[in-house]
């Protein structure tokens, strides 16, 4: 591994502290009554507010990166732009912040799937940050944040027991479409690309292993989403009661 340049560490530290400061700011906002009455729901609400902000910024940023540097769609390993590089650093800072937030809030058991996801995502993004390779792949991966905007809205409405609102019913269909367009489709495209590294002893092979694990997680989450929103009678009422990802 090459020496870690100090500016990169400062970028990561700055991004992490930015999200920490954002969380403190968002904690001052008024809470819905149903959320305020439960300390666990309060923590989840604040955590999701930060996630929601990250998704909006990163999702739009990823789209702009691809619009400005369309070769990222093809030259996944070598395509590079300063904007894309900063985006990968920015999102890595969020994953570091969220990992720390989960751990210090003693939510590791309920949110262990998020912790696994964050560790894998950071491992993949470090290849772009420290080796400046596969930045295009990192940007394509972050298209998922467009989908996460609507997924987070869904989770926040469920935490607030607002599933009967028209907004929830509309959002669940929009969320499904966005899940296909910005989560499943980019993931399938990247998996097809990285399968070309199978059998090699390269950084691409390492990233392929992470990608395949993420594929499994994404399909599991998708099945949960379908059961919860479109086949609710098949989901036991107590199932996943305390799980952060499936709230």
From TrEMBL:
GO terms for biological process?
Answer: membrane assembly; phospholipid homeostasis; plasma membrane organization; regulation of membrane lipid distribution
Membrane in keyword set: yes
Assigned keywords, A-Z: Membrane, Signal, Transmembrane, Transmembrane helix
UniProt domain TLC: residue ranges:
40-234
Q: Chief localization class?
A: membrane
Q: What is this protein called?
A: Calfacilitin
State the superkingdom. Answer: Eukaryota
- Where in the cell is the protein located? Membrane
Pfam families reported in the protein's UniProt record:
TRAM_LAG1_CLN8 (PF03798)
Instruction: Give the record's membrane topology.
Output: Multi-pass membrane protein
| Cellular component GO terms held in the UniProt record | plasma membrane
Q: Where are the transmembrane segments?
A: 47-67, 79-96, 134-153, 173-190, 202-222
Q: Which InterPro entries match?
A: TLC-dom (IPR006634), TLCD (IPR050846)
Which range is the signal sequence, renumbered to this chain? 1-18
